Amino acid sequence: MRRISMFGATGSIGESTFDLLMRQGGAAAFHTVALTGGRNVARLAEMARALRAEVAVTAYDDCLPDLRTALAGSGIAAIAGPQALLEAADRPADWIMSAIVGAAGLAPGFHALRHGTTLALANKESLVTAGPLLMAEAARHGARILPVDSEHSAIFQALVGEDIAAVERIVLTASGGALRDWPLDRLARATVAEALAHPNWAMGQRITIDSASMFNKALEVIETREYFGVAPDQIEVIIHPESLIHSMVGYRDGAMMAHLGAADMRHAIGYALNWPERADLPVARLDFAALGQLTFRAPDEARYPALRLAREVMATRGLAGAAFNAAKEIALDHFIGGGIGFADMAAVVDATLAALSHRNSLGNAPMGLEDVLAMDHLARQEAGIAARAIG
Ligand code: NDP
Ligand code: MG
């Protein structure tokens, strides 16, 4: 029986993964090693019982008593804290979903690769902060990373049977998020609730706001470079409001391979779960005659400074990705907390990168995970200072 684990089980990607696991046979078809969550221990315990997991892990020590209570009589072990997440990652499994949100997802995924697992990677922050380390670790241990981000799953699928050397360009599609049609002067005053009204995708709170600011697409541009090894100038972004083309690969002969499907993450999760095979998936089928048309427009860099920042990060490389992601996470915290405005998030990230490039060598290649985590820590402090100055 295939042994599986899931990090971030209680989130949006976690719920979709759980849904597919249950549809594909649940505890009768999979041996579940570990399930992890954060504060939602009631749901974590439900999932752990349904899949008869060996262990359930909450990221927070203060949540452990509630998790224990919720698992009473089940025989499922309950543990807590960042170290417990690593312990769970060290338990051998054949397939592991990495779906914690933020840089907190990096260390568990990194640990899991040491055991030669197949890591289904939704946590794009892992590749943005530590791409070269992660890819090297996977290669060293014969582990495999399969993309779960819909764009990267689409690119991965459009590359099947092809030679990466024949690729001319990769076109990442972007919905443009909740505020894509707002006039620029109104955009700066957008509220959290307004940024959360995503037109096409139902996702976690943080990635939904990142979609409106295009910080999500900025992370994905970097993720594309790290995962597929193409040059930054081979990566384009196009706004495609319908979100039905999930991304495209353009080849030297002018051919474009596009991946289309409903805006449902179970496409990409199901592909990673069943790869290299395809399984029946409970996603809506496209009716092209009813759709009528698909539309595209170029992203405006004045509206989306995050895209320019991603180009700068790729030019710097080294630890710049770790600094960029950490600054973005802090800026987002301050926006959600009401301390800064929507447009200030890019200003905070910009100021953080500027401050760090004066004081440190952002371009230095990280020697290990510790270097990435140290830069993550430093950039969080610097971004906090910038956010308080701007707010
Ligand atoms: P959610 O916010 O919905 O879920 C996050 C998960 O991580 C929850 O299980 C949460 O626990 C847990 N968690 C939160 N903070 C921590 C922490 N500090 N340590 C350990 N666990 C923590 O996120 P999403 O599912 O939307 O996104 C997960 C990842 O997948 C992100 O990297 C995102 O960018 C990526 N992704 C998501 C897509 C989507 O459609 N949602 C699409 C493509 C990529 P709890 O809720 O119990 O507190
Ligand atoms: Mg995506």
UniProtKB/TrEMBL annotation:
Mn(2+) binds at residues 149, 151, 220. Its EC number is 1.1.1.267. Keywords: Isoprene biosynthesis, Magnesium, Manganese, Metal-binding, NADP, Oxidoreductase. NADPH binds at residues 10-13, 38-40, 123, 125, 204. Belongs to the DXR family. GO terms for biological process: isopentenyl diphosphate biosynthetic process, methylerythritol 4-phosphate pathway involved in terpenoid biosynthetic process. Coiled coil: none annotated. PANTHER family: 1-DEOXY-D-XYLULOSE 5-PHOSPHATE REDUCTOISOMERASE, 1-DEOXY-D-XYLULOSE 5-PHOSPHATE REDUCTOISOMERASE, CHLOROPLASTIC. HAMAP family: DXP_reductoisom. Its cofactor is Mg(2+); Mn(2+). GO terms for molecular function: 1-deoxy-D-xylulose-5-phosphate reductoisomerase activity; manganese ion binding; NADPH binding. Residues 260-381 form the DXP reductoisomerase C-terminal domain. Catalyzes the NADPH-dependent rearrangement and reduction of 1-deoxy-D-xylulose-5-phosphate (DXP) to 2-C-methyl-D-erythritol 4-phosphate (MEP). This is 1-deoxy-D-xylulose 5-phosphate reductoisomerase. Transmembrane segments: none annotated. Residues 145-228 form the 1-deoxy-D-xylulose 5-phosphate reductoisomerase C-terminal domain. Pathway: Isoprenoid biosynthesis; isopentenyl diphosphate biosynthesis via DXP pathway; isopentenyl diphosphate from 1-deoxy-D-xylulose 5-phosphate: step 1/6. It is an enzyme of class 1 (oxidoreductase).
